[in-house]
């Protein structure tokens, strides 16, 4: 395994900025282990991700499985698959080094903004004459704001758990 594999293993667990915030609110290895039990349970004890173009071993599938005291990270790379056992203590130490107070505050603010914006959306009958009028007056502005907030949350996550190979900005 390489240092990139460790970085990608930790980052992959926190693909969602809200998941990273929830994990950071569970300080220490024992609390992270409890948090991860719920994460793995939601995914039948198996998470996977296909590595993107430009990343090490592009196209390879990476798997996370729970293991005693941590998780097992497997990269189905050619010619030789790799396996890395990561402890929750290592993850906790990595996150504490990376999550400075400013980065943590930014993550809290952006994740909260995304959650509040999502809660504000109420799917229901809207009294507009046509679907186009509804899209112009409500749907497009709401979607634009949602995208902006999600991008800000992803940037806050990236400051704490950066990609092994930085991805180009979407905008």
Notable characteristics:
171 residues, four-stranded antiparallel β-sheet, alpha+beta, globular, 14% strand, 55% helix
Explained architecture:
With 171 residues, the protein is an alpha+beta fold. It has six helices and four strands; from the N terminus they run αααββββααα. Strands 1-2-3-4 form a four-stranded antiparallel beta sheet. Helix 2 crosses helix 5 (101-120), helix 3 crosses helix 4 (88-98) and helix 5 packs antiparallel against helix 6 (131-160). The model has no long low-confidence stretch (mean pLDDT 88).
Number of helices: 6
Largest sheet: 4 strands, antiparallel
Could you list the spans in which at least 5 consecutive residues all have pLDDT below 50?
none
Instruction: Write down the overall geometry.
Output: globular
Determine the fraction of residues in helical runs and give it as a percent range. 40-55%
**What is the beta-strand fraction?**
5-15%
SSE topology string: HHHEEEEHHH
Structural category is: alpha+beta
> How are the strands of the largest sheet arranged?
1-2-3-4
Radius of gyration: 19 Å
Number of strands: 4
Q: Tell me, rounded to a whole number, the average pLDDT.
A: 88
């Amino acid at each position: 395994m390489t240092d990139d594999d460790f970085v990608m293993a930790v980052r992959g667990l926190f693909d969602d900025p809200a998941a990273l915030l929830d994990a950071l609110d569970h300080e220490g290895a024992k609390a992270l282990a409890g948090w991860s039990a719920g994460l793995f349970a939601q995914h039948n004890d198996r998470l996977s991700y296909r590595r993107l173009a430009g990343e090490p071993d592009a196209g390879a599938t990476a798997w996370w499985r729970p293991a005693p005291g941590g998780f097992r990270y497997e990269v189905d790379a050619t010619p030789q698959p790799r396996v890395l056992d990561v402890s929750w203590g290592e993850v906790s130490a990595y996150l504490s080094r990376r999550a400075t107070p400013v980065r943590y505050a930014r993550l809290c603010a952006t994740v909260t903004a995304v959650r509040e914006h999502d809660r504000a959306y109420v799917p229901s009958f809207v009294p507009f004459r046509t679907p186009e009028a509804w899209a112009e007056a409500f749907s497009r502005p709401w979607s634009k704001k949602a995208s902006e907030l999600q991008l800000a949350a992803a940037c806050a996550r990236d400051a704490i758990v950066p990609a092994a190979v930085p991805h180009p900005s979407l905008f």
